[in-house]
Amino acid sequence: MDFLPMIDFYQITIFFDQHSPSIIAFSTIALAVITAFYAIQTRLLTKNQLRPAFSCSLIGEAQNMRLPYMIGLHLKNVGLGAAFNVRVEYSIKGIKNSKQREKIHDIERDMEHNVALIQNGQPLRHDRLADRVIEVTLKYEGISGKYDTKFQLNENEFFSDRL
Predict the structure, then answer these.
(1) What are 117-147's pLDDT values in tens digits?
(2) Does residue 36 sit in the same domain as residue 113?
């Protein structure tokens, strides 16, 4: 310990006394930068938490217990935020001119909405023989921005238990 210079407590207090305005200014700036960093991080986390998110599945509805089932699209907002101006676009993969659109005003969190699928002006029906893939694109707005979500739903996977 002989090689370390001995610093007197009195010298430390004199140093802080002489440089106190600089030390206070530096500390204030450092505290402001740290506070701004955490404020920005908190805002980003909050925005991401309030984002709407959807689950999408096919549903079938029959007027009697025989096939064919009328096919619908079941949307559920599983996110923590509401979705506004929801636009649903769907088409059947491999079939030209099968693209359809529907607009839904809003879907609150934990709310569900069903969309009847239409092809050529008629309800889309499942008839055991069809092996169709329905491509769904959701475009919607939330508090934190605009989003696009895409789904590919195989018709036979949803209705195999009913065949």
Answers:
(1) 887 777 777 766 667 888 999 999 988 789 9
(2) no
